[in-house]
Specification:
Order of helices and strands: EEEEEHEHH
Number of strands: 6
Strand content: 15-25%
Strand order of the largest sheet: 5-4-3-6
Radius of gyration: 21 Å
CATH architecture of the largest domain: Beta Barrel
Largest sheet: 4 strands, mixed
Distance between the termini: 29 Å
Low-confidence stretches: none
Number of helices: 3
CATH topology of the largest domain: OB fold (Dihydrolipoamide Acetyltransferase, E2P)
Length: about 170
Amino acid sequence: MLVEERPLVPLTGRRRVRRVPFAEIAGLNSVQNATDDLLTLTTRDGERFVLPPSLAPGQGLIRAPDQAGLGAFAGALQAAMTAAGSAAPPVADGLCFWNRPVGLSLFGIMFLASLALAVVALWGMWEGAATRHRGGEAVAILVMLPVGVAWMIRRSWKRRRAVLRALRES
């Protein structure tokens, strides 16, 4: 299998191209990155490749990721591995960066920073700061920012607990 990995944001990372034999694939995991489900392929020597879903067909600049297509790709990969005589690993739930301790710590720092910004914005409004033009929208965003970050923390924590519970049970 030929794997070509590019950074999600252009010009922010290196590009890797590897040919991975089916016999060298040790694991397939489904991980979450924000609202997208990604497929990670792990080789026997520990190399890890993150495979994002392709974009669903449609028109316009904003298209949704094709999550069903990614699942179909994983199934086709397992079928090809079996047909080639290699044992196909099951697609298991896995942890991404944001579900691990470092990611959760960064979320905590983001929550504290957003909470401080919200407090400053509310204090300014209380003291009579004028919100002309688009200032009111900016204050609303700053006040709601901790709620959004708390939602992301909750979602990452729930995913972490579910994956670790499944690993303990298996």
